[in-house]
Design brief:
about 30% helix, 6 strands, about 30% strand, six-stranded mixed beta sheet, Hypothetical Protein Tm841, Chain: A,domain 3, 3 helices, alpha+beta, globular
């Protein structure tokens, strides 16, 4: 069973990804109880954000009683775009926008977005 946390990695990372996926592709990854599993990949930030919003909307259970948390790594405009797109699809109790700090910056990279509901 997965928690509802999605990460969109920025294309500027240089790490190799699971399955031999080369750096430079934006990926949407899902954090689960068993670790980090790659859920999907997309070419281009806009396509990755659309997929991220789709996964959040599909996986949201009882979202009316939950808080939507969006964390960004040096890209508040992108976080606002994600927030607006999610709010068009599902109702939530409250929304919190934050900057990344500490370990979460390693997962999102510069320009990345983390969504939790």
């Amino acid at each position: 069973m997965y928690s509802s946390c999605l990460v969109m990695r920025c294309p500027f990372d240089t790490q190799r990804r699971p399955g031999g996926i080369p750096p430079g592709l934006n990926t949407v990854q899902l954090f689960g109880e068993a670790g980090v599993d790659q859920l999907d990949q997309a070419r281009g930030i806009n396509k990755a954000l659309v997929k991220m919003v789709d996964y959040v909307a599909k996986g949201a259970v009882d979202s009316k009683n939950k808080v939507l948390g969006i964390t960004h790594c040096n890209c508040p405009a992108r976080a606002e775009i994600v927030k607006d797109a999610i709010l068009k699809r599902i109702p939530v109790k409250d929304v919190v926008l934050l900057d990344t700090a500490g370990v979460s910056t390693m997962y999102a990279n510069d320009g990345g977005v983390i969504v939790v509901i």
